[in-house]
């Protein structure tokens, strides 16, 4: 086996191929005859057929998402009415535990420890801010200057599109001191079918472009920009301090009105776009439908457990690799 593997690697080098630039080749492939390799090529062609069937499955899923979205919207409208104080739920609408799976003692303590309201409240104050802040992947994007604005967030809704396939996230805001928009949007276009040159990398729909919206900031209230002072080093003004406006870290950079195609980007920017899509997909698939569970912390615990398990797997993998050395 070792000799065959060496011959395969020697062959690559002989023809001027750098193995680092070539796909990984399993050692067992070197042991196969030409006849067996021909049959393997047949399996590869069958795999291509399987991927095409898989993409048709995802096309159907996307159509089903569009078909069922109005049903979710109707439920979510009732949720919004409670959150914003338009509807006060009756006792029969509240006959579920505050925390599912909690012991009777904990539920009793939570009830006894609830603060007594001075001024009667309306709805669920700052509901969506706490929802987003309880999602680790999103809370990392929220900075101190964003908090007063996000406390005015009243709802997040989603529109599902076809022709082209995609979805839009709609962030509904009440009147605030920072911008005049009532809705901020983030659009994602999806490519559901695989491309021929990347067919074996197919893992389902992928984002191909994204577009935010213009935020109409009120004067001097743009939290995505900050003014810094820099000392001029060259020229006749050397030594003087000059002011410069630069980009500031902010949750609202999420709405930058860019529309770019993944294939046209360098790898660093493409990775940023992929991370952006993961956040958008997380909001669509988890945060919007399970908002109350993120508010209570129940869904956040599920995500924390997943992240910890994933980290442990990575650490174990690293240990295993170290042991091989």
TrEMBL record:
GO terms for cellular component: nucleus. SUPFAM superfamilies: NAP-like. Pfam families: NAP. Residues 1-17 have a biased composition (Basic and acidic residues). Residues 1-20, 302-325 are annotated as: Disordered. It comes from the Eukaryota. GO terms for biological process: nucleosome assembly. InterPro entries: NAP-like_sf, NAP_family. Belongs to the nucleosome assembly protein (NAP) family. This is Nucleosome assembly protein 1-like 1.
């Amino acid at each position: 086996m070792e000799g065959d593997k060496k011959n395969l690697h020697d062959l690559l080098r002989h023809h001027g191929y750098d193995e680092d630039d070539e796909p990984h080749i399993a050692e067992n492939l070197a042991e196969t005859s030409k006849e067996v390799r021909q049959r393997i090529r047949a399996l590869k062609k069958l795999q291509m057929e399987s991927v095409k069937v898989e993409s048709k499955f995802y096309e159907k899923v996307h159509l089903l998402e569009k078909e069922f979205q109005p049903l979710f919207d109707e439920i979510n409208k009732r949720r919004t009415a409670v959150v914003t104080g338009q509807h006060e739920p009756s006792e029969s609408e509240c006959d579920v535990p505050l925390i599912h799976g909690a012991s009777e003692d904990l539920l009793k303590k939570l009830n006894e420890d609830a603060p007594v309201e001075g001024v009667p409240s309306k709805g669920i104050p700052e509901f969506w801010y706490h929802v987003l802040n309880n999602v680790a992947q999103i809370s990392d994007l929220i900075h101190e200057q964003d908090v007063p604005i996000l406390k005015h967030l009243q709802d997040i809704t989603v529109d599902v599109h076809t022709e082209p396939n995609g979805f839009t996230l709609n962030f509904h805001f009440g009147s605030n001191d920072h911008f005049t928009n009532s809705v901020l949007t983030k659009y994602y276009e999806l490519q559901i079918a695989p491309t021929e040159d990347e067919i074996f990398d197919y893992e389902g729909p992928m984002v191909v472009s994204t577009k935010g919206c213009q935020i109409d900031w009120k004067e001097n209230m743009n939290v995505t920009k900050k003014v810094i002072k820099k000392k001029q080093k060259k020229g006749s003004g050397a030594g003087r301090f000059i002011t410069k406006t630069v980009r500031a870290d902010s949750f609202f950079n999420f709405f930058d009105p860019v529309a770019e195609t993944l294939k046209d980007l360098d790898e660093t920017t493409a990775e940023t776009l992929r991370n952006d899509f993961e956040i958008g997909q997380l909001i669509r698939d988890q945060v919007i439908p399970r908002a109350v569970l993120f508010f209570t912390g129940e869904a956040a615990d599920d995500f924390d457990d997943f992240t910890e398990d994933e980290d442990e797997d990575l650490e174990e993998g690293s240990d295993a690799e170290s042991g091989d050395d």
